[in-house]
Structures are given as structure tokens and as C-alpha cells.
Amino acid sequence: MGKKKNVVGVVYSTNPDFEYQFDEPEEVATLPPSQQRLRVSLDRHGRGGKQVTLVTGFIGTDADLQSLGRVLKSACGVGGSAKDGEIIVQGDHREKVVALLKQQGYGVKG
User: How far apart are CA 44 and CA 107, in angstroms?
Assistant: First the structure.
């Protein structure tokens, strides 16, 4: 037997043609690189004293964020993550990340 999704606000309907409407968050379309303004900074808060290069300000889909994060991490040869609109690259690679982002056409501050 399939599991029913919980619908907020509707308990039961006697209308046989009633269809539940789910509010799905819309994905933000990715802006072209020339319209993006990314900030590159060094961060060590909450990381046990380890340094990470933090790229914030990305506006776009999660898939495009993951793709850009993968490019930056592989170019620096380190690990990291890309989620919640920010890219984390392990280590202090600010100059390299800024150069790569400028080469791809992004507006970079930092």
C-alpha cells in the first residue's frame, strides 16, 4: 500500500474531482556569470582552526552551484562542498579561486 503525503490544511474532501495542490519551491534561474557578484573570503569559524576559502553570493540552481564548486575544487586539487548558495574549498586558495572565477567571467570581490 502506498504512503500518502501529508497535505497541510486539507483533512478530507468529499469532492471526487478534488486534486491536492502541493506548494513546491521554485528554483531560481541561474544568472549569467557577468551578472553574478561573488565574494571570496578566508574563514575558520567553527572548523577547528582549519582554513577554508569561502565563495558566497551565487544566484542560481543547485546543480549549477555544484558544477562550479566541482570546477574550483578540482582546479585547486582539494576537497570541499557546495550547498546553501556557498562554495567551500578546503585551504587558503583565495588567489587561485579569484583568478579562476574572473577567467570564467564572474564578477569577484575579495
Answer: 24
